[in-house]
Amino acid sequence: MAVQQSTPTLSFRGTPILIEGLVPFDYRHILGGAAVRVSLGGRDKKGGPEALNVQTLPSGPATLVRFSVSENTPAGSYNGELHAGESRFPMVVEIEGRRQLQVTPSRFSFAASPGAQITVDLAAVNGGNVPVEIAEAGGFGLFDVQGADRAIGEALRSDEAANLKGERRVDRLIEHLANEHGGLVRVQFREGAGLLAPGEFRALKALLRMPDGIKPGRAYSGTWPVANLRLSVYVDVPGYIESKEVQ
Prior knowledge:
single chain, mainly beta, 7-stranded mixed β-sheet, Immunoglobulin-like, 8-stranded mixed β-sheet, elongated
């Protein structure tokens, strides 16, 4: 059956890995052998993305159609046509943005002194369909890995002097926790900063400057944000290890 002017334009929406919409076509016809195909037009003369893994499911008097496209298909609006047996329906497909940045390695562990500068190499690939910005500069905090236990121990050792001053134990805990913070690591990307296009692979090189507040003989951990990812960092500070234990 040819497309008539009164034929409704179908609306489909989703990310590249799952796009779906309803078709006014009885599912029983599909069971009877009617094939469903999707063809999409491009936003330029190169043509549109290929519809993959087309699936159909019953949905009352209509049919739910699902399909996917290449993961790095740019977000935007695409016109197309759905073929259900001999019937054809114009369609508009709204492909949403999907961020999927991968960075390796995702964990770092090294020894560093206060104020030291460490150069690290990374690799990034944008597996999504929208550009991802890798900021040239940034930072993240370091916290003593035993700081929470030490702060709790200090807070529990309340004395009469503190009680007479009207200090609350929770306030003392917050103060001791703040003292266990090692400071801010300054990050500067020397290579690879900027927009990473969908499907693009890039080598990165970053300079990490350790804070002056980290103490010899202690270990610190932090979470380094790169775009929408969080990388784990563990820093061991060489030096004399304090023998004083939390009671």
